[in-house]
Sequence to fold (224 residues):
Amino acid sequence: DTGVSQDPRHKITKRGQNVTFRCDPISEHNRLYWYRQTLGQGPEFLTYFQNEAQLEKSRLLSDRFSAERPKGSFSTLEIQRTEQGDSAMYLCASSFEGIPDGYTFGSGTRLTVV
Amino acid sequence: DQQVKQNSPSLSVQEGRISILNCDYTNSMFDYFLWYKKYPAEGPTFLISISSIKDKNEDGRFTVFLNKSAKHLSLHIVPSQPGDSAVYFCSGGGADGLTFGKGTHLIIQP
Fold:
């Protein structure tokens, strides 16, 4: 297992376009988290899944954001009608049963909205 | 409302000396506190954690101290090495997710 994989690594999009990111967690991990990090800030929690169930969503996750984990394996994060304020690093992490020591992060997807 | 605060944006330490990174929190419900290390263009890497019921955890050169009455924790790195130069994030939480501070950029001087 090569860890948590995120695709793409970089995405540049025009304002108003839709974008989708993918995260492949560590295979035996049943929990998957999405975070967003902007310059000079720490990662901010967006949402998490246990298997295919989305258990919590941050108020940061506006109606333009949607996340899915259809089969309890990989997850996608879609942003509709992107805005310049969406420019950030989007990080995915996974863990087994939420054991805190096991939070493993991917390298992130850097989104730039122009 | 910043639940986890790292008040030092940067810290410079000489190689071989002790690095002490500090963190304050306001949420008494955190089950665990974790330190992550981050290099540019990479995701955060788990470093060390401590349960809220403990006051110290040690792993090699890294020790985390928790003072619950002061709602303060610190990460000690000794001896500091050049490869320790990175941004360090303090976080608190549990199985439902983590809340991170803004990070401290540690620079190890030769």
